[in-house]
Write a structure and sequence with these properties.
With about 290 residues, the protein is α/β, with parallel strands linked by helices. It has helices at about 1-25, 70-75, 95, 100-105, 115-120, 195-205, 225-245, 250-255, 260-265, 275-285; strands at about 30-35, 40-45, 50, 60, 85-90, 110-115, 130-135, 135-140, 145-150, 160-165, 170-180, 210-215.
C-alpha cells in the first residue's frame, strides 16, 4: 500500500524533471558561424556542430540534445534547402548524439566509429544507430570536397574521430579538443591521457596556420590555440608523472594546486572540468605508467 501511495509522487517528480529539462532547452538558441562558403559551425547546448552544405545535400557533424533538433534543423534551413543526408558522430556521448533518433527519422544516414555503435546500441533504438561504421579511416565525398574521417585511439573515449574538410580547410575535433579549458577524459569509456595527447598531435599534422578548427566545446579556434592546448596537456602530464614518481597518492595530487597553477591562472578550470578534477583524471590515467 505504501508503494502504491508513492506512485503519484514519483510520477509527479518525473513529470517535473522532464518539464524542467525541456524548459532549459526552450531557452537555448542556435548560433550560426560561417567558416567558408559551404561550411559552418553551429553553437547551442552540448557539443559544437559542423555543417557542410552544397549541391549534394547537407552533412552535419554531431547533433547535441534531442529537444534541440527542430531548432538545429531550422538553423540549417537558413543555409540550404537541400535535405540533411549525412550525420557524423565524433563519439557516443549524449550531448553530441542526442538527436540521432530524430535525424534518423528524417532520413539521414548516420556514420560513426565501430565503438560508437557498440556503446549507443546499449541504450538507443535502431533508428539512432550508425548504419555505416569504420575501424580506422573513412573518406566521404560531399559538396565538392573530400572529408577525411580519422579514428584516434583511446583519447576522449574509445570511439573518437577527427573530421577534416580538405578543400575548406576546416577541422572538427569532437571532444578531443576543449578550447581554452580543461578537457573531459572519459576513462571509463576508454579515454586516456596518452591517447588524448596523440589525438591532438594527429590533428595538428592535418592542418596549417589558416585552418579553422571546430572544437568539441569552446570558441572557434586555430592552430596556435590548438598548440597551446597540447602544451597544457603535456605540461600537466609531466607534472603529474613527477609527483607519481615521488610517491604521491591520488589525494596528494588531487589537492596539489601547484600542478595546474599556470593554467588555473588562465581560467582553464572555468567550466565542466575543475582543476581538482583534471589533476585526479591525469593521476588515474597515468598511475600505471
Amino acid at each position: 500500500m505504501r508503494f502504491l501511495k508513492s506512485i503519484p509522487v514519483l510520477l509527479f517528480l518525473l513529470f517535473s524533471l522532464s518539464n524542467y529539462a525541456q524548459g532549459r532547452f526552450d531557452k537555448v538558441s542556435i548560433k550560426t558561424i560561417k567558416l567558408t562558403d559551404n561550411t559552418y559551425m553551429l553553437v547551442g547546448a552540448g557539443g559544437n556542430i559542423g555543417v557542410s552544405v552544397g549541391e549534394d545535400g547537407v552533412l552535419i557533424i554531431d547533433n547535441q540534445f534531442a529537444p534541440l533538433t527542430q531548432k538545429i534543423v531550422d538553423a540549417i534551413k537558413k543555409l540550404s534547402d537541400k535535405p540533411i543526408k549525412i550525420v557524423m558522430n565524433t563519439h557516443h556521448h549524449g550531448d553530441h548524439t542526442g538527436g540521432n533518433e530524430n535525424f534518423g527519422n528524417l532520413g539521414a544516414t548516420i556514420m560513426a566509429h565501430d565503438n560508437v555503435k557498440k556503446r549507443l546500441k546499449e541504450k538507443s533504438p535502431a533508428i539512432a544507430l550508425p548504419v555505416i561504421t569504420y575501424n580506422d579511416k573513412l573518406s566521404v565525398q560531399m559538396n565538392g570536397e573530400e572529408v577525411l574521417v580519422i579514428h584516434v585511439d583511446n583519447a576522449h573515449t574509445d570511439g573518437d574521430s577527427l573530421l577534416y574538410f580538405t578543400e575548406s580547410n576546416v577541422l572538427h575535433t569532437g571532444d578531443t579538443y576543449f578550447n581554452g579549458r580543461y578537457p573531459y577524459m572519459d576513462l571509463k569509456s576508454g579515454g586516456s591521457v596518452d591517447g588524448y595527447i596523440n589525438a591532438v598531435k594527429t590533428g595538428l599534422m592535418l592542418i596549417d596556420e589558416n585552418t579553422k578548427i571546430i572544437p568539441g566545446h569552446g570558441e572557434l579556434s586555430n592552430k596556435a590555440e590548438y598548440e597551446t592546448f597540447l602544451n597544457m596537456l603535456e605540461t600537466l602530464k609531466a607534472n603529474v608523472l613527477a609527483e607519481i614518481k615521488n610517491g604521491k597518492t591520488e589525494n596528494d595530487i588531487k589537492s596539489n594546486a601547484s600542478i595546474t597553477k599556470t593554467y588555473d591562472d588562465l581560467d582553464y578550470g572555468c567550466c565542466y572540468i575543475s582543476s581538482e578534477k583534471i589533476r585526479q583524471t591525469f593521476y588515474n590515467s597515468l598511475k600505471e605508467n
